[in-house]
Amino acid sequence: MSERDYYDFVFSFGLIEHFDKGTTSEIIRKHFELVRDKGIVLISAPTPTSIYRVLRKIAEILKIWRFYDERPIPVSELRSEVGKYGMIIEDKILWLIGLTQYAIIVRKQIL
Question: Whole-prediction pTM value?
């Protein structure tokens, strides 16, 4: 890839949770391949908090859950994966949306 093929910022929301753990790891790696050194990657994915589990179970019982391949990703898993490629700048669980999301912002390390 040429220098112009890299980005300063890569944003991912609603993607990585639809794959198994191994494929998720590979997709996260690809996010960091697309960003310049010292660029920023922001990834958000559902995380299995108690409120997430309860709301999802209710939706499944009511047969209104449509994301059957969604795999809520534990905070520790996502932190570990992105930590391979850069420094975590900020992270937090987004509680107000009910089906909790974990958002993490990472600065890519210089290779």
Answer: 0.91
Question: Residue 16 contacts by C-beta under 8 Å, 6 or more apart in sequence?
Answer: 24, 27, 28, 43, 45, 73
Strand, coil or helix: 106: strand
Pick the CATH number of 3-108 from 3.40.50.150, 3.40.720.10, 1.20.1250.20, 3.10.20.580: 3.40.50.150
Helix (H, G, I), strand (E, B) or coil at 57: helix
Calpha distance 86→89 (Å, rounded): 9
pLDDT in tens, 19-46: 999 999 999 999 999 999 999 999 999 9
**Is residue 35 within 8 Å of residue 29, measured between CB atoms?**
no
- Residues forming beta bridges with residue 46, ordered by sequence position: 101
Q: Which of 110, 101, 111 is nearest to 42 (CA)?
A: 101
